[in-house]
Amino acid sequence: MDLDFLIDAFLAVVIGGLGSVRGAIVGAYLVALAANLALTFMTGDVATAVSFVVVIVILLARPSGIFREGRAIA
Amino acid sequence: VSRTLWILPLVVAAAVAFPFLGGGDAYNLQLAGDALALGTWVMGLDILVGYTGLVSFGHAAWLAVGAYTFGYLAQQGWDAVPALAVTLVVAAALSWLMGIVATRAGGLAFAIITLAEGVVLYTLILHTGFLGGGIGLFGVPFPKIAGLSVLGSERSLYFFALVLAVLSYLALRALTASPAGGFWRAIRDDRVRARSIGIELHRYEVLAFVVAGVIGAVGGVAFVVLNAGIGPSQFDWTQSGLALVILIIGGSGTIYGAVIGAFIYVFASNYLTSSFASTWQVYFGALFVALVLLMPGGVAGVARLTSGRLRRRLA
Fold this sequence. Notes:
The structure holds 2 protein chains of 2 kinds. Chain A is built from 3 helices and no strands. Chain A is an all-alpha fold. Chain B starts with 6 loop residues before the first helix and ends with a helix. In chain B, about 45% of the residues are buried.
């Protein structure tokens, strides 16, 4: 469904760091790269799941995104 | 809360009487059962969203965990009581694992991680052969309850969902009134302050996540019994959005608001689809926007406001 674009955009922005335009660009590249690399080696829905695992790992390493300084509390 | 103690027995009495009164034809009874199942599922989400202030975009996972575990055991001929116990344990273990990961980050990152976990679980389930694979789990028989074959008629299914909903509501109300409930609200209102007075944020956030997962799975149990199965479209990520829509319509931070929201959603969507087969979502969207604009606190919020005003006027 077209709703998937909504998710991709959301993922890109959060991975890059909210409030950072640079982050959105880098985030978009990362999301697209993860999704398409996974798609090269796996079938459709498994690839989606794998790109989501990449997202989880990035967010665990940097909870407020790649280009955002300042830590989340906790 | 204690001043409104008489409302719960009244509502339960009305719910028990419902199948025996005018509104109890088979179709409405089925819808009411569905609403109770979805309401129970969303009640769990309220602990995260309404009480702890963590917005989850992966609540559909718990509907699936409850439905698949219980449904699979029922297919193996298990009795409902041990099957429910095993389902609760599985849901608690899984939500503990996923909660530890998700609560490492707050705010939007939490929303994204829960969304991602939901998608991963969705894919895992659809690739597990003995769970029916990409078709879903179907042909789930009615399990016996403590050795008795009481399930079968629409009325019995409705009561099954009702019992699970009431038990879940009582459990959640006791939990939110306990010290843990106070900690959840403190975390929701101000994380910095909560931590500075010594609340272990991570620990209580994981606890909220586990409670949400377990109660969500109870909703899944009711769902799989009522529908004799569950299909992939019933627990994909858009269903997690549905859980939030139901919670916002009903009113978060109240627990019972989830059930109100589920009734509005189930009845509105069913009667809208019968009149506007392909465009019903346009009307439901308009209804949703209107409800959010007119009642920012959901239906439960308005109910609380008017009952407070009435009480003041009478006093």
